[in-house]
Design a protein that fits this description.
Layout: H1 12-30, E1 43-48, H2 54-65, E2 69-74, H3 86-94, E3 100-105, H4 110-117, E4 121-127, H5 133-147, E5 154-158, H6 165-176, E6 180-184, E7 200-202, H7 205-209, E8 214-217, H8 233-240, H9 244-247, E9 255-257, H10 270-273, H11 281-299
Parallel strand pairs: 1-2, 1-3, 3-4, 5-6, 5-8, 6-7, 8-9
Bound molecules: phosphoric acid mono(formamide)ester.
Family: Belongs to the aspartate/ornithine carbamoyltransferase superfamily. ATCase family.
InterPro entries: Asp/Orn_carbamoyltranf_P-bd (IPR006132), Asp/Orn_carbamoylTrfase (IPR006130), Asp/Orn_carbamoylTrfase_sf (IPR036901), Asp_carbamoyltransf (IPR002082), Asp_carbamoyltransf_Asp/Orn-bd (IPR006131)
GO molecular function, one term: amino acid binding
């Protein structure tokens, strides 16, 4: 693969290779001396059209720990604000001969479109409600290290599925790796195609959480409602917020996950989020650096063809 645009289309072997490669970086990241040299001389540009704390920072750390040169292009202070289009911006950056572009964009499909226009490898750092592949990989690495496997586990993904690229990438990955996926959400926050994804659908948290191994909570993405009905956050927490009472339906050793950023008191009770035995939310962030090192390193094996860049109108 030249790009990493989504989990859909990756084989179980591809995913296993990425996870095995990531695993090797976990110990390195815990060491005092972290610097490696496999990306020496390579240039990585982070191009984030949407806000990010975890993804942008961990891609920057990942690139630097592998010895690469990392540029963070700040969209807020760029010529995007003067009206330059996504594609013109990409072609401009491509002319500076980067080896990898990491792109986050608010529109589903925007990163794949951009990837067709540049000669270097592109990693999707999240596009609209479509995919966030490195998030699903870091979630899988977290689960695999804690539970020793993915196959046969029962995973509940709960909350605002409709707007969630994290949910989509996780559904593809978990299905491919042989886990059983349950979606728990109000009918208004489930995409119409949910039933076709090979998952079980629940509208009741207590029923859906019964005997699951993993509880994956999602942020209620208020900014993506665009004028449609916004639920009352108090009512949402009452029915769909993860608290100790609802969590008691899951297996006693179930892991609590959240991709972040969290809305404490809306989709997750603060005590559950901070449960020192079962919450792995900070471990997910830690795994994020290792996964992004693996993705950068594997994609950097492709030789870029910067002349490939095609005109914006083409
Ligand atoms: N989980 C995640 O993508 O977080 P950021 O939006 O902070 O990158």
């Amino acid at each position: 693969h030249r790009h990493l645009l989504g989990i859909e289309g990756l084989s179980a072997q591809d995913i296993q290779t990425l996870l095995d490669h990531s695993d090797r970086y976990v110990d390195l990241n815990r060491a005092v001396e972290k610097k490696q040299s496999s990306l020496r001389g390579r240039t990585i540009i982070n191009l984030f059209f949407e806000n990010s704390t975890r993804t942008r920072t961990s891609f920057e750390l990942a690139g630097k720990r592998l010895g690469g040169d990392v540029i963070n292009m700040s969209v807020a202070t760029s010529s995007v604000k003067k009206g330059e289009t996504l594609i013109d911006t990409a072609i401009t950056l491509n002319a500076m001969h980067p080896d990898l572009l990491v792109v986050r964009h608010q529109d589903s499909g925007a990163v794949a479109l951009l990837a067709q226009k540049v000669g270097c490898s592109v990693i999707n750092g999240g596009d609209g409600s479509h995919e966030h592949p490195t998030q699903a990989l870091l979630d899988a690495l977290t689960i695999r290290r804690r539970k020793g496997r993915l196959e046969g586990l029962s995973v509940a993904i709960c909350g605002d599925i409709l707007h969630s690229r994290v949910a989509r990438s996780n559904i593809h990955l978990l299905n491919t790796m042989g886990a059983r996926v349950r979606l728990i959400a109000p009918p208004t926050l489930l995409p119409a195609f949910a039933e076709r994804l090979g998952v079980e659908v629940y509208h009741d948290m207590r029923k859906g959480l019964t005997d699951v191994d993993i509880v994956m909570m999602l942020r209620l993405q208020m900014e993506r409602f665009h004028g449609s009905f916004v639920p009352s956050t108090r009512e949402y927490f009452h029915f769909y917020g993860l608290d100790h009472e609802k969590l008691a339906f899951a297996k006693p050793d179930a892991l609590i996950m959240h991709p972040g950023p969290m809305n404490r008191g809306i989709e997750i009770d603060t005590e559950v989020a901070d449960d020192i035995h079962r919450s792995v939310i900070h471990e997910q962030v830690e795994m994020g650096v290792a996964v992004r090192m693996a993705c950068l390193e594997l994609l950097a094996q492709h030789k870029p063809n910067w002349r490939h860049s095609t005109p914006a109108g083409a």
